[in-house]
Amino acid sequence: EIQPFTQVPSHYYTTSSPTYYESPVLKQPVWIWSIPLYFYVGGVAGVGAAFGAAAQLTAPKKMRNLIVKARWIATVGGALSAALLIHDLGKPIRFLYMLRVFRVRSPMSMGSWILTAFSTFAGGAAVLPYGPDMLRPLVGPFGIFAGILGLGLSGYTGVLISQTAVPVWHRSYRTTPILFLASGAAAAASAFEFVQMNDFERSAVERFGLMGKVLELATSLVLEADANRIERVGRPLKEGFSGFLWKSGKVLTIASGVLSLFPGQSRPKRVAAA
Questions:
Q1: Residue 93 half-sphere exposure, CB side, CA atoms within 13 Å?
Q2: Is the dihedral of CA 136, 189, 187, 164 positive or negative?
Q3: What is the pLDDT of residues 148-157, one digit of tens each?
Q4: How far is CA 129 from CA 47, 64, 74, 135, 192, in A?
Q5: pLDDT one-digit tens code per residue, 66-94
Q6: Taking the complete model, does pTM exceed 0.90, yes or no?
């Protein structure tokens, strides 16, 4: 006989009890490989566009070459992000269905709109310089808007997973968006290291990347400490394949930061650090 919900023991729905996390009601996420790849590509594209917008506002002449590359990285990343999201949804029409609703309290709804607007502005900033002269004044504003929306694209995915019922994600809802932004900054700076840059651009990218790596490590430690307050919640960060990935990410980030601080500006060193 099924009892009313009010008669179910409280330990089935209180977050302080291990029984809650063993409940059969909690199902394993069904996301396929395209979603984690979407998180990564979106982070690189979004923060890359934000860096390009900052360079456009502060040093448009000294960093002209890197600004152009940042816009193209954002454009290609936005297109790949849309393709990966559609691949997960199964049909392109489902992505259009998501745009029928604009719901501020829904990370999925806001993320779909952010991705659409970001791709539009980033693509415009990259392509319009080669178009009619009458449209070229739009390049600058499009680049700025793409940079602003890029921060939303990189961070909303952290908000999205923290709104799920997975305990290690849900408990870290304050930290996860910051971690995603910091990880995007480190990844975007690493992507820039693979393109040709002048000395001024290289110095700016190196400082930006180091800042992202330090913030990523600090946020990872805060998230881990928060999750470990309940032993069962923090277990995925220590055990199994997820624990391996979590630890490897920290080790590689530390190695990248240390290597980038070594003296010298040789391209092999920078590529290795990236």
A1: 0
A2: negative
A3: 999 999 999 9
A4: 22, 13, 15, 8, 21
A5: 999 999 999 999 999 999 999 988 888 88
A6: no
